[in-house]
């Protein structure tokens, strides 16, 4: 390993040489305050930027342990440090030549606090740091001293001389509790500077040897951070996680805190609307109260399990409320306005998505007797209709998640999938209509599978009959109108015939055919590529994820792409079902982190759910399956 000064000299020597000569600087440098690791060097100034890491040791970063002593806090802290690094990099870095020259940046960040591979707290818990006693059972008889080498960092092997013959397990006791201070690993990208295609050595030396140390010092040394803000970030996320955990045992599927600001600034800007936003207030009869670990008492609207309708006139805030609930599966940064809108983690937005492909999904609970005798127990199409796509979206969610909560907005639903009224039943006989509308299935979903639904429906009162709770929005204010809606349902009978049969029907599991997922376009190299948050290139295919509304971050899409490759390589064997494969992949990530998804340290993966991984696989046009 070489140090900062030798890197500086090296960069100055490279001045004016062809860009490829930068490849030489790949490696590991001791910057005394931290270590700089150059993992990958770009091939030219216009190519995707170089990949760097810094490792700031605990004695320099000095992050207090209380900021990362729970899983929620650790994820929040990593997110916070990423944001601080991003901010410092923005203010210090500047364009220094052609292409991406001069760029220093981290992954793109939105309103959500997600687990990311951009930052890690080191040492990760619970590594053995030396000093603690190791106990061996039965007691080691060798007499020789036991040496641990290299210092045990968790995961490294422990060697004992002479070799221990007992065969029993070695336990480290007492369990390591971690030091009092944390260090940081931060991953970022750098555009190594060039004039035309020749190296700008002096600029590179400034960037790497002056700017980076300054960014690191400003953003990764606790002494230079805003302690109160950092604490608030961590505590907000911990409270939100805690609230989400309270939902199930309180019979709720979502909670919207009083005072929340739900509307966004514009259709393309997810920051909160500042002027004229009406803060959310729970109707008294739906109000629940919790005592959060950090902020203490909080009140808001609890949406009970079952079937909930959100009604109200056009433009009165229905979709805005549902969108906040959709994203309540994630945590938000302080100041977002929706920090304490939390939703059952298995909540899934369901919408119509005509044009998508569907691979062998059993949509027969909703759709039967299609023209030309098309099979709906194993429904294949390259071009789904509104109703068949919406049916497939529901069944696919049920396939991977035992008890999802369905979220539906009339704005993006297929009308003929949602309702079929009395007059239409009269005109078009049941045996001429392939679709059993959602209204006749929604109660069965709850009764048979415990699946709750929250539905925005301003246009049809037919749903009053099947709803447990009806919330009206009027000038952005919420009211509980359940009683009134039920009375109306009684007094104005629609006398339509229920068409749903006895039960919802069976959920058929599918087994993906491994050869139908090919990330390598028939060659050796895997090709996955991500554009923004809604398109993924997988092998020769483009997967359109624009309608998968709970993918909110391009880092999620990058991780999903890598997880698809991982799933194929590790678990697709032509026998396992898609849901088994997803469970195995998610369990591996849970146990070992997202780094298992890539051969090199990736800085721009963000955590996703099994539901979204399944959504990406399900939209692969080449996918073929066999029924289990
Ligand atoms: P709906 O689905 O009922 O037709 P939307 O949710 O689409 O209504 O909201 C209509 C408009 O009102 C949007 O521009 C939205 O940003 C804004 N809006 C929603 N909720 C609020 C609120 N609480 N305060 C102020 N404006 C809001
Ligand atoms: Mg709407």
Automatic annotation (TrEMBL):
Residues 5-121, 182-222 form the ATPase of the ABC class N-terminal domain. Residues 527-625 form the MRB1590-like C-terminal domain. It comes from the Bacteria. Residues 228-510 form the ATPase of the ABC class C-terminal domain. InterPro entries: ABC_ATPase_C, ABC_ATPase_put, ABC_N, MRB1590-like_C, P-loop_NTPase. Pfam families: ABC_ATPase, ABC_N, MRB1590_C. Coiled coil: none annotated. This is ABC transporter, ATPase. The lineage of its organism: Bacteria, Bacillati, Cyanobacteriota, Cyanophyceae, Oscillatoriophycideae.
């Amino acid at each position: 390993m070489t140090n900062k000064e030798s890197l500086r000299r090296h960069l100055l020597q490279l001045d004016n040489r062809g860009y490829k000569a930068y490849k030489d600087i790949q490696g590991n440098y001791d910057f005394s305050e931290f270590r700089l690791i150059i993992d990958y060097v770009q091939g030219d100034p216009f190519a995707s930027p170089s990949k760097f890491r810094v490792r700031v040791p605990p004695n320099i970063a000095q992050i207090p342990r209380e900021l990362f002593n729970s899983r929620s806090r650790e994820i929040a802290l990593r997110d916070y440090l990423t944001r601080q690094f991003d901010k410092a990099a923005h203010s210090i870095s500047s364009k220094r030549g052609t292409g991406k020259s001069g760029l220093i940046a981290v992954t793109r960040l939105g309103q959500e606090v997600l687990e990311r591979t951009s930052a890690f707290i080191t040492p990760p818990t619970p590594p053995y740091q030396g000093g603690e006693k190791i106990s061996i059972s039965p007691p080691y008889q060798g007499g020789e001293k036991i040496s641990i080498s290299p210092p045990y960092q968790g995961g490294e092997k422990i060697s004992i001389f002479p070799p221990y013959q007992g065969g029993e397990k070695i336990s480290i006791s007492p369990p390591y509790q971690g030091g009092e201070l944390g260090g940081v690993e931060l991953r970022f990208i750098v555009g190594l500077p060039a004039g035309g295609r020749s190296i700008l050595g002096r600029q590179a030396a400034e960037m790497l040897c002056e700017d980076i140390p300054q960014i690191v010092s400003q953003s990764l040394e606790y002494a230079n951070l805003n302690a109160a803000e950092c604490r608030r970030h961590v505590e907000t996320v911990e409270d939100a996680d805690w609230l989400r955990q309270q939902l199930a045992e309180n019979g709720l599927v979502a909670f919207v805190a009083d005072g929340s600001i739900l509307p966004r600034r514009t259709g393309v800007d997810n920051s909160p609307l500042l002027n004229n936003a009406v803060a959310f207030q729970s109707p008294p009869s739906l109000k629940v109260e919790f005592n959060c670990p950090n902020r203490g008492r909080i009140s808001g609207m609890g949406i009970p399990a079952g079937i909930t309708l959100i009604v109200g006139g056009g433009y009165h805030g229905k979709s805005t409320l549902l969108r906040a609930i959709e994203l309540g599966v994630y945590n938000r940064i302080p100041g977002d306005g929706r920090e304490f809108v939390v939703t059952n983690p298995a909540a899934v937005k369901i919408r119509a998505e005509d044009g998508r492909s569907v691979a062998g999904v059993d949509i027969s609970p909703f759709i039967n007797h299609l023209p030309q005798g098309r099979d709906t127990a194993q429904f294949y199409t390259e071009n789904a209709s509104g109703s068949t796509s919406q049916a497939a979206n529901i069944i696919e969610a049920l396939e991977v998640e035992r008890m999802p909560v369905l979220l539906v907005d009339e704005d993006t639903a297929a009308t003929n999938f949602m309702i079929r009224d009395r007059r239409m039943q009269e005109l078009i006989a049941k045996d001429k209509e392939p679709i059993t509308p959602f209204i006749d299935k929604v109660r069965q979903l709850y009764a048979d599978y415990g699946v709750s639904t929250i539905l925005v429906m301003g246009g049809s009162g037919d749903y009053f009959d099947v709803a447990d709770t009806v919330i009206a929005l009027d000038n952005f204010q919420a009211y509980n109108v359940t009683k009134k809606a039920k009375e109306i349902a009684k007094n104005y009978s629609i006398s339509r015939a229920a068409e749903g049969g006895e039960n919802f029907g069976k959920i058929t599991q599918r087994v993906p055919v491994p050869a139908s997922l090919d990330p390598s376009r028939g060659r050796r190299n895997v090709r996955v590529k991500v554009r923004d948050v809604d398109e993924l290139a997988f092998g020769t295919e483009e997967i359109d994820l624009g309608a998968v509304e709970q993918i909110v971050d391009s880092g999620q899409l990058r991780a999903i792409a890598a997880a698809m490759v991982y799933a194929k390589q590790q678990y697709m064997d032509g026998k396992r079902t898609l849901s088994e494969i997803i469970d195995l992949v998610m369990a591996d990530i849970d146990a070992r982190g997202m780094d298992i998804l890539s051969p090199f340290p990736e800085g721009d993966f963000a955590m996703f759910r099994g539901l979204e991984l399944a959504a990406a696989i399900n939209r692969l046009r080449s996918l073929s399956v066999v029924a289990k």
